[in-house]
Write a sequence for this structure.
C-alpha cells in the first residue's frame, strides 16, 4: 500500500514538474511579442540634440568675447594708440564685423597715480581713442558704448610700473 | 650794580609775560605767524561723566594746532585748584609754567559745568553748564564745548560745525558716507552700487552731488538730506565728472559733449549751458570761492594737468601752477585767496598751497605714500585730504600752514575724496 502511494506520488510530482517547466518555457518565449514595461516607451537611440537659440547665442557670445577681448595699453598720462594697439584694434574690427549681432562696451582705465577725477577724464579719452579708430574701420558708433572707470578698477594691485603698465588700458566687453 | 641787574631782569620778565598774555583772549589763526597757546585741562571734580567729558575735550584740542595741551603733571604742584572758579585756582604756578589757559570741570549727577580762564588776567573766557548729560551724550556735549572754545578764541568754529562727506569702499564698489570732522556720527548715505566718487556739498548743506560709475556709465547723483534719498541722472556724452556746487546752488560738472571733458554749469532744469573756460584739453575739478567770482580747475590744455583760475565775470583764464608736471584736484579757499592742490612729486603725491595774492606756494603735506584730494574747510583754515601713509587710503586733516596731520576716524575700509559741508552731522 505504501509502495503504491509512493509510486503515485512520484508520478504526480513528475507531472507537476513537467507542466511547470512547460509553462515556464512558454512564458519566456512570449517576451519579445509582449510589452514587458507597459508604462514606458520602447527605448530607442537618441537623435543628435539641437541647441536652443539661447544656447547658440551664448556660445556665439563667448566666441565673440574671446575674439574682441584683447586689451590695448597706454603710456602714462597718454591716450595715444601705439602701433601694437592699432594692430589689436584692426583684428578687433574684423571680429566685430564677423559678430555683427553684438555691441561692445569700451572701458577706459588708468593706473593709480594721479587723482581720481583727472583719471576719469583720461580714461574716457582712452576709450574714445579706441572707439574712433574702430569707427574709421567701419564699426558704427551705435555699436560701441564708452565707460571710464579711471583708477577705480585696477587689473593689478601692485604699486610699480609692472602693475601700472597693465592698468593703463582699454577693455572690450560684449554688451548684449 | 647788582640791584640794577635784578630789577632789569624782573622788568623784562614782567614785559615778556604781559606781551604773551595780551595775545590770548582772542587771536588770529590766519595770521602770518601762527600763535601757539598752552592750555591746561584740569581733572573733573565730582566723578561721573566728568572724566569722559574732559577726555573728549582733550581729544578735540588735539585737532586744533593753535592749542598745545598741557597735563597737570607737567605743572609745578600739579592740580592745586580747590574748586571750579577763579578764586579757587592758584594761578601763580600756572604763570610760572607758561600756561596761558586753564580749564576746570565740575560734575554733579548729570550736570556738567566747564570753564576756561585766561591765566594772566584770570578772566573767564568760556563758561558753560549742561544738564541731563548721560554717558551716551557726553561726547556731543564735549564737542559743543570745544566748538565754543574755538569760537571764542578765533571767531571761527567751522571745523566743529560742519560735516565731511567722503567716498568709502563698500561691497566691491564705493558709496558716499558722512561724518563729523572728528569722525563722529558715521553714516552711509548712498546705496547705488558701482562707484560713488567726488562728493560735493551744496552751500546750504541740503544736498550732496557726486558721480556714480557703473556698467550703465557715469551718472550724476544728488542726495537729498531732508528726504535721505538720492537720484541718479544721465547726461549726453560718456561722463559726469567732479560735480561741484557753486555758491548760487547750481552745479558745475565736467561733461563730454564735444569729445572730451569740459566744465559746464547746469541750469535749474539740469541742462548744461556753454562750456566754462573751453579748450581742446581735459578740464575737470572745479572749485569756487564763496562769492562765486573765481573758479579754479584742473586742465590739460597745455599738456600735462595744471591748475588754472577762471574769473567768472570776465571769462579770463590764468594759469596758477608752473612747477611740477602733474598738478590736480584744486580746492579754493572761501575767500578766494588760497588754492590747495595735489602735485605728483618723486616721492608720491603731496598737497601744496598757493597764495594767489602774492603768488607763492609751499608744500603742506609730506607723506609717506600719496596725499590726494585736498579740500578747504568752510573757514579756509583746515585742509582735509586722503593719504595712503598708513597703508590703505584714509582721511586726514591738516591746516593751511602744514601742521602735523591728524587722522579722522572713518571705520574700516579705504576712504577718500573728503568734502566739507556747512551742515550738522546726521544723527
Amino acid at each position: 500500500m505504501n509502495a503504491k502511494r509512493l509510486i503515485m506520488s512520484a508520478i504526480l510530482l513528475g507531472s507537476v514538474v513537467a507542466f511547470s517547466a512547460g509553462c515556464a518555457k512558454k512564458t519566456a518565449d512570449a517576451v519579445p511579442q509582449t510589452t514587458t514595461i507597459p508604462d514606458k516607451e520602447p527605448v530607442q537611440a537618441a537623435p543628435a540634440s539641437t541647441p536652443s537659440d539661447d544656447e547658440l547665442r551664448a556660445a556665439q557670445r563667448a566666441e565673440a568675447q574671446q575674439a574682441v577681448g584683447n586689451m590695448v595699453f597706454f603710456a602714462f598720462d597718454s591716450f595715444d594708440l601705439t602701433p601694437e594697439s592699432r594692430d589689436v584694434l584692426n583684428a578687433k574690427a574684423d571680429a566685430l564685423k564677423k559678430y555683427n549681432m553684438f555691441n561692445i562696451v569700451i572701458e577706459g582705465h588708468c593706473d593709480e597715480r594721479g587723482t581720481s577725477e583727472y583719471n576719469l577724464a583720461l580714461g574716457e579719452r582712452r576709450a574714445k581713442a579706441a572707439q574712433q579708430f574702430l569707427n574709421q574701420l567701419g564699426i558704427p558708433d551705435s555699436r560701441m558704448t564708452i565707460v571710464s572707470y579711471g583708477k577705480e578698477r585696477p587689473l593689478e594691485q601692485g604699486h610699480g610700473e609692472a602693475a601700472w603698465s597693465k592698468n593703463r588700458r582699454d577693455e572690450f566687453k560684449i554688451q548684449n | 650794580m647788582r640791584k640794577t641787574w635784578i630789577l632789569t631782569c624782573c622788568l623784562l620778565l614782567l614785559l615778556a609775560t604781559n606781551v604773551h598774555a595780551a595775545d590770548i583772549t582772542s587771536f588770529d589763526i590766519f595770521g602770518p605767524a601762527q600763535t601757539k597757546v598752552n592750555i591746561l585741562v584740569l581733572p573733573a571734580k565730582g566723578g561721573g561723566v566728568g572724566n569722559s567729558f574732559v577726555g573728549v575735550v582733550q581729544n578735540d584740542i588735539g585737532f586744533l594746532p593753535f592749542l598745545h595741551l598741557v597735563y597737570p603733571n607737567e605743572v609745578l604742584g600739579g592740580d592745586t585748584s580747590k574748586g571750579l572758579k577763579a578764586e579757587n585756582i592758584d594761578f601763580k604756578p600756572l604763570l610760572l609754567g607758561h600756561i596761558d589757559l586753564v580749564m576746570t570741570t565740575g560734575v554733579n549727577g548729570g550736570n556738567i559745568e566747564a570753564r576756561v580762564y585766561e591765566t594772566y588776567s584770570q578772566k573767564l573766557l568760556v563758561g558753560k553748564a549742561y544738564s541731563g548729560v548721560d554717558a551716551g551724550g557726553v561726547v556731543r556735549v564735549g564737542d559743543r564745548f570745544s566748538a565754543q572754545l574755538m569760537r571764542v578764541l578765533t571767531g571761527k568754529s567751522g571745523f566743529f560745525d560742519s560735516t565731511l562727506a567722503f567716498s568709502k569702499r563698500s561691497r566691491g564698489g564705493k558709496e558716499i558716507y558722512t561724518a563729523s570732522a572728528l569722525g563722529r556720527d558715521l553714516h552711509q548715505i548712498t546705496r547705488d552700487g558701482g562707484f560713488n566718487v567726488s562728493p560735493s556739498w551744496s552751500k546750504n548743506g541740503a544736498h550732496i552731488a557726486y558721480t556714480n560709475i557703473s556698467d550703465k556709465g557715469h551718472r550724476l547723483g544728488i542726495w537729498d538730506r531732508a528726504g535721505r534719498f538720492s537720484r541718479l541722472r544721465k547726461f549726453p556724452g560718456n561722463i559726469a565728472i567732479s560735480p561741484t556746487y557753486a555758491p548760487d546752488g547750481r552745479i558745475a560738472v565736467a561733461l563730454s559733449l564735444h569729445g572730451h571733458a569740459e566744465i559746464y554749469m547746469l541750469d535749474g532744469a539740469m541742462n548744461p549751458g556753454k562750456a566754462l573756460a573751453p579748450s581742446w584739453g581735459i578740464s575737470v575739478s572745479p572749485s569756487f570761492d564763496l562769492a562765486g567770482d573765481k573758479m579754479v580747475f584742473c586742465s590739460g590744455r597745455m599738456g600735462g594737468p595744471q591748475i588754472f583760475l577762471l574769473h567768472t565775470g570776465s571769462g579770463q583764464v590764468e594759469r596758477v601752477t608752473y612747477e611740477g608736471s602733474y598738478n590736480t584736484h584744486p580746492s579754493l579757499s572761501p575767500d578766494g585767496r588760497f588754492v590747495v592742490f595735489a602735485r605728483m612729486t618723486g616721492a608720491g603725491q603731496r598737497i601744496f598751497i598757493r597764495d594767489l595774492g602774492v603768488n607763492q606756494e609751499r608744500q603742506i603735506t609730506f607723506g609717506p605714500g600719496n596725499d590726494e584730494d585736498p579740500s578747504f574747510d568752510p573757514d579756509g583754515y583746515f585742509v582735509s585730504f586722503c593719504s595712503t601713509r598708513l597703508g590703505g587710503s584714509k582721511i586726514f586733516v591738516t591746516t593751511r600752514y602744514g601742521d602735523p596731520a591728524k587722522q579722522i576716524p572713518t571705520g574700516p575700509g579705504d576712504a577718500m575724496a573728503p568734502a566739507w559741508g556747512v551742515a550738522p552731522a546726521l544723527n
About this structure: DSSP finds five helices and 29 strands in chain B. Helices of chain B lie at 2-22, 50-61, 92-96, 138-154, 158-161. The two ends of chain B are 69 Å apart (CA to CA). The interface with chain A takes residues 174, 195, 197-198, 211, 213-215, 217-218, 238-239, 241-242, 254, 256, 259-261, 282-285, 298, 300, 304-305, 326, 328-329, 342, 344, 349, 370, 372-373, 416-417 of chain B (CB under 8 Å).
